[in-house]
Every structure is written in structure tokens, then in C-alpha cells.
Design a protein that fits this description.
The protein is of the alpha+beta class and 127 residues long. The protein is 28% helix and 30% strand. The longest helix has 20 residues.
Length: 127
Amino acid sequence: MTKQIVFTEEANPPLPVYSQAVISGKTVYASGNIGITRDMKLVEGGVQAQTRAALENLQKVLKGAGVTFDNVVKANVYLANFDRDFAPMNEVYREYFPSNPPARTCIGVATLPFGADVEIECIAELP
């Protein structure tokens, strides 16, 4: 197995314990993204602002790997407050996947890094 580490200056820098994404074969595995700024501060505005920031950063990572949201086949969404945030998160999520959305799992979790409300990761297929 060979793997290629994806790193793009356009996206928020990853912590030293993981890569922004990894390509193995024709599959891109993008790490989880939370709604933070380049200086690692949580964006203000709740789950919708954090979802938008997470997806914008994820979009930059995918571009660095040579794919777009159209190539995403599976997404995983983690919510720190599922009951409160599921519907508002979906409103923003739909903007990025308006048609033919990928398979998706959405899970309620106890806590997320930096006290985030949402984290999103995905798997995409290279063209």
C-alpha cells in the first residue's frame, strides 16, 4: 500500500498528530474539520457558522487532493448537541451538497475539540 499525504497552505493547518487528508489508491480520506479560524480560534455564531467554516476548510483540503464535493461518497458528521443542532447544521450542509448528496452518518458525541459544536470528515473518490 502506498499513501500520499495531502497538505495545502490554503486550508487551516493540521495539528502535528494528523494529516489534512491522505490518498490511498483512488480514495481520499479527509480528516475531521471543525469551525475554527487559521489561528485555531472557534468561529462565533453557533453550529451554523461552525458548519460553514468546517465545510469551507474541508473544501480547500479536497481541492488540494484534486477533488471537489461532487467526488465525496461518504461524510461523517459529529454533533456535541444533537437535539439542538441537527436541523440547523443540515440547513448549511445542504448548501454544499445541493443534489446527489453523499452517504452520511450523523452522530451525537459528548465533546469535540476546542469545544466545537460540529466536526465533519469525508471520503472522496479521485476522478
